[in-house]
Amino acid sequence: MAGSEFDYEGTLEACAAGDRAAFKRLYQQEAGQLLGLAITLLGRRDQAEDCLHDALLKVWVNAERFDRSLGSGRAWIYSILRYRALNQLRGRKQLVATDDGFINDMADEAAQAEELADARSSARQLRACLRLLERPRRHPILLAFYRGLTHDQIAVRLSAPLGTIKGRIRAGLRALQECLQP
């Protein structure tokens, strides 16, 4: 079943009601993609598998907290995985295992940016939406997601005021959410 046809919101609501078959469908739909993202973020398959397990357990246990009015079900699932991975990285006091070149190329819209992104993820729609964002909004989002940097760290790195960075991230995420909505 293609990602755009899968009913993430309905599936999460079924999970919240204790429907194990719905959770199995969700696992079959997203486990491979989630593992790929965890490997990208953590750099080690064994740790990525642990992260994936923890994130999916958290999805199952907290499915009743999902609110479709706040965003897509798929984004909610991926945010849980991302936060688990970032917590793991903070615990071992390391940065996300994505090189600065990848982030800069994506932020600068270099010719090879699409190829670099394709090598890291098959989330074509997200890449397309990221490319639609102007660099001042895209770059801080990429630093936060792939590097796990805080708003303060991004402000220092980009030599911009903290309020400006927060505003750019907020506006960029809103634009991404609108772009990713079916």
UniProtKB/TrEMBL annotation:
SUPFAM superfamilies: Sigma2 domain of RNA polymerase sigma factors, Sigma3 and sigma4 domains of RNA polymerase sigma factors. Keywords: Sigma factor, Transcription, Transcription regulation. Residues 124-176 form the RNA polymerase sigma factor 70 region 4 type domain. The keyword Transcription regulation applies. It holds the Pfam family Sigma70_r2. Residues 26-93 form the RNA polymerase sigma-70 region domain. One of its GO terms (biological process) is DNA-templated transcription initiation. This is RNA polymerase subunit sigma. It comes from Pseudomonas abyssi. The keyword Cell inner membrane does not apply. Belongs to the sigma-70 factor family. ECF subfamily. Transmembrane segments: none annotated. It comes from the Bacteria. GO terms for molecular function: DNA binding; sigma factor activity. NCBIfam families: sigma70-ECF.
